[in-house]
Amino acid sequence: MQKKRNWSRWIKIVLLVYGSLGIAIYYLQDYILFHPVSLSRDYNYNFKEPYKEVNIPYDSSSNINIIQFTVAGHAQGAAPAPKGVVLYFHGNRDNIGWYEKFAVNFTKNGHEVWMIDYPGYGKSTGPVNEQRLYDYAGQLYKLATARFSPDSITIYGKSLGTGVAAWLASRKNCKQLVLETPYYSMTSLAGYYFPIYPVGRMIHCKMPTYLYLQKVIVPVTILHGSSDWTIPHRNARRLTEFLKPGDAFITIPGGSHNNLNDFPFFHEKLDSLLH
Questions:
Q1: Do residues 134 and 212 touch, judged by C-beta distance below 8 A?
Q2: What SS3 state is found at 198?
Q3: Which of 14-23, 31-40, 135-144, 182-191 has the least mean pLDDT?
Q4: Whole-number average pLDDT of the chain
Q5: CATH number of 36-273: 3.90.226.10, 3.40.50.620, 3.40.50.1820, 3.20.20.140?
Q6: Domain residue ranges of the chain, discontinuous segments joined by +
Q7: Do the bridges between strand 51-59 and strand 62-69 make them parallel or antiparallel, or are there none, so unpaired?
Q8: Angstrom distances, CA of residue 81 to CA of 30, 66, 105, 141, 217
Q9: Bridge partner residues of 250 (DSSP)
Q10: Could you tell me the pLDDT band of residue 26, with boundaries at 50, 70 and 90?
Q11: 16 pLDDT tier (thresholds 50, 70, 90)
């Protein structure tokens, strides 16, 4: 009898812990996913690369902040006109200030790179949710087409931004789509971290990259590290099912989630896409 009571008590404890953790995941999921650093509107960036800052009012209470990194010397007539523009959708941490160091990867190849901050990141404001991420991406594309033809626009996503980039490329014309460390879907990634929960019903930011890739008609290149444990290589590898002939899934041997930029092989592949 005592043994049955002990088992009953432990079952109740396990269920209580399971339920409490599940409730915490549900209500804190935005804090788990998004790690923004906001900046005041009058903050002055001090970037190494030449740039122009643009602010677009989204509505009466929301602002979209964009940094346009330009090709060095072009404004002074010392360099030819840019070959095109890269629309860069960054990861889930910090703001554009953290990702500015990657701008040279594109400007050195003669491309401007326009980085956008998501709502709550940097100087961008407004509520952050999946639809708002897509809406801001659409505004960035609209701005780009005022200067560049679609066949000179590269859509580039990194980590969190890969779902946004894939969504945009599935709806708008462009030259190519490049995804750095993408996920199959945000739901599948949540399932990796929380395998004992019905995450399909819990997660409201689903980001189904695999669905968007099925509608992308331009060339797609995926770059992923073999030792990435933030977004496991096997999770991203599932996207190969939806790649077209001519698309490429490129594995960076030894690469993890945040250090692909340190690998010459990564730069070799990226440079070949921007020739």
A1: no
A2: coil
A3: 14-23
A4: 91
A5: 3.40.50.1820
A6: 1-33, 36-273
A7: antiparallel
A8: 41, 21, 17, 20, 27
A9: 223
A10: confident
A11: confident
